[in-house]
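Hello,

Following up on my earlier ticket. Below are the two sequence lines again, exactly as submitted.
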Amino acid sequence: MKKIDVSQIRQTVRELCLKANFELRSDILKALKGALRKETNPRAKSILNTIIENARIAKSERLAICQDTGIVIVHIEVGQDVGLVGGSLHKAINDGVKEAYTKGCLRKSVVSDHLLRKNTNTNTPAIIHSEIVRGDRVKIDVSPKGFGSENKSKMMMFKPTASIREIKDFIIDVVKNAGPDACPPFVLGIGIGGTFEIAPGLAKRALLRPIDKKNPDRRLAKLEKELIGRINALGMGPMALGGKTTVLGVNILDYPTHIAGLPVAVNMSCHATRGASKTL
Amino acid sequence: MKPKKIRTPLSSAELRALKVGDEVLLCGVIFTARDAAHKRLSDILKSGHRMPLDLNGAVIYYAGPTPPRPGKAIGSCGPTTSSRMDAFTPELIRKGLSAMIGKGDRSMDVRKAIKAYGCVYFLATGGIGALLSTKVKKAGAILFKELGPEAIYKLEVVDFPLTVGIDSKGRDIYDKAKWKKTQRAS
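Thanks for your patience. The regenerated structure is below:
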C-alpha cells in the first residue's frame, strides 16, 4: 500500500493557502478579462480594471488579494489504497493552515466561543470535507472563503413538485439579495438534491470547478448557461453599480433526493473567488 | 470625469459639495472600525463613559486589514460590508462622525442620520485590498489592540479612491438600480 506521511499534507496545505490568497484563480482572471472586453459601462470597466490590477499587485507583492483571507475550506479526497501515516490528518491540515496564516501575513478571521467571539489567532480550525475515493492518490483543494459573500448564501427546501421556474427564480432572488455586499461579479455554486446537509456541501464543492470548464452533465450545463444569461441581464454589474457583468460563472452539482423533497442551495462567491489544488 | 481630491478633516461645506456618484481621491487620516470595535464604542457610549476616540469630524473605514509585510505600512485593506454596522452608525454620527467608508448599501435609519447631520457615506471597491494597500502610507493600531484585525487602526492615506454612495442630502447611489426592485432583506 502506498504511504503518505501527513507532514506532506501539512506542507501542501500551507503552500496552497499561500498560493490561493496571493494568486487569483486563472479561470477567474480570464473571465474578468473577457468581461472587461464586453463591458461598455464606464464605471463597470473602471472597476473591472482595478480588480485585474489588484490581482497583478497581489501576485507580484505576495499580498492577499482581499483582506478577508477567509475561513479555509479544505476538500480532501483520499484514495482508498493510500495509507496516511505520521499522525492525525486533521491536525496536519490545521497546522498547515496555521503556518500559512501566521507566516504569510494573512488575516486571522476565525473566532471561537460565539458569546465572547474570541479570535483563535491561527485562522484555525479549517472547515474540512474529506471523502474516500478509489485509487492511491490524495487530492487537496484549498479555498479561502470570505464572509461578505458567504453571509448572502441561502438554501431552500422546495416541494418535490416545484417547477424549474420556481427554482430559477429562487436563485435569481438570492443574487438580487446579495447585491453589492457580496462583491459582484459573482461566482455561484449551486447544489441541488440530496438532504438538508448535502445541498450546501454540493454548492460549496461546485465552486471548485474552473468556470471555463463545461459541466459534464448536459442538462446542468444548459441550466448554468441560462442562469448566467438571466443574472447578467439584471444589469447589476461590478459592485452592483451597473453593467453587464454580474456573474462570471454558475457551477451546479446535483445528487438524488427523496420523493418528498427538493433541497436547493446557493453558495455565493465574490469576484475574488480563490482556490488552489494539488494531487499527491 | 476626473476624481476630485479631498483631504481630512472634511469641512461641512466640502461634505455638502459632494454629490452621489462623485468619484473622489481621499487624503489624510481615517480610522478603521468594524463589528467588534463598533459594539465596544456603542457599549462605551451607552455606559456614559468618555469616548476613547474623538469622533468629531472623524472618518471611519469599515475594514480589517491583513498584517503588513516587513517594511510595509499595512497589508491588504479593502472595505467590509457596511450594513453590519448600521445599528451602531446613527449614534456615532450624533457624536460627530463626518464620513464613513465601506461597501454596499445602508439602512434607512443610517440614511436619515446622514441627511440630518450632513455626513457622507463613501463606497470603496470590495476585493481589491492589495491595490488599496498601496494608498496607505502609515498605519497603527490605536485602540482595542487585543481585537487583532478588528482593532481600531489610524491610517494615513493618499489618493484613496472612493465613490460617494450616499450624499449629505441622503441620496443613495443604489436608489435607481433596476435590479433592486424589491426591498432587500438585511
